[in-house]
Amino acid sequence: MNARERVLKAIKRMDGNPDRVPIQFxxxxxxxxxxxxxxxxxxxxxxxxxxxxxxxxxxxxxxxKMGSDxxxxxxxxxxxxxxxxxxxxxxxNEYHMKMRQGPVYVDVVGFPLAGIETVEEVxxxxxxxxxxxxxxxxxxEIIAKYKKxxxxxxxxxVTMFQLAQQLxxxxxxxxxxxxxxxxxxxLYERCIEFQTEIGLELIRRGxxxxxxxxxxxxxxxxxxNEHLFRxxxxxxxxxxxxxxxxxxxxxxxxxxCDGAVKPILNDFxxxxxxxxxxxxxxxxxHGPQELKDFIGDKLCFWGAIDQQRLLPRGSDEExxxxxxxxxxxxxxxxxxxxxxxxxxxxxxxxxxxxxxLALCKKYGAIY
Length: 367
Description:
Layout: H1 3-10, H2 29-39, H3 60-66, E1 70-74, E2 91-92, E3 98-101, E4 106-110, H4 119-124, H5 137-146, E5 151-156, H6 161-168, H7 170-178, H8 182-205, E6 209-213, H9 226-247, E7 252-256, H10 265-271, E8 275-277, H11 288-295, E9 300-305, H12 310-313, H13 316-330, E10 336-340, H14 350-364
Parallel strand pairs: 1-5, 5-6, 6-7, 7-8, 8-9, 9-10
Antiparallel strand pairs: 2-3, 3-4
Helix pairs in contact: 6-7, 8-9, 9-10, 11-13, 13-14
């Protein structure tokens, strides 16, 4: 059974059980460099429009060698794009956000739409060109190389809510959403329109899955009220996913959403989402049995391994117990792709990464 069949069976797109639970993982820049050297595998980096997504859609040749059953691609910066680094180390990306490299992530330190108040100001903002053909050169290469044996995922993370946040600043976006300022809906619409075009370009090129992303949860609760989500966000996402399904009825829809978001999981299903990622552990409502019982007949799960404490600092025994439990519960009757709940960061030892992957294979064949 190849990786493609394994994933399609696990997410119930093919009949029968996979030979084991599929594995997926993302590596930070430091791990990519370390394992590239260790295994002697040169890696190809796809510079995404939003910098931190770069590490999701790069180094596929390395990750499949290490055991990943999915391959990721996405829109890149166009071939002509050359940001200028200022003396203070900052630069402007294609969204006109002012960026600075932080200790882990790239930080937005200047928001291009900060202070706007009107729909007209939203209309005047220029998004990058989603149809620039060189954005998809690397995606085309990845699809051609891997589609026969792997499910290829088209990544459109930082889709709407987070994209608007990075354009406005978090405080302004949340305050103006709460006040239901008229321009907010138009900004969300323009973000969705832009990412819909990116997604359609990837679908035309042959991806099997679209992976969208917005974080609506905190460690303890939703970030915004349910009625705000249902009134201002849910309809736009449903329209986008319906558009993707019209373009390709077989496209698989996955969604990344951090935090405690159990109260809106049924809304996810109604929006057209089939796979929920990252199933952040340790937050209210996200116990594996609770989630499996609550919505396991409607959603597949992708993730659920603790990235905050367990992977970097837990004992080997604790990690083994969690991997076994997640596979046993979330993988029962299919519907699970095992993965860390975030990109594996540099605070996780390389040996620990390999141990985790070995555990996934050891316990994965327990159907």
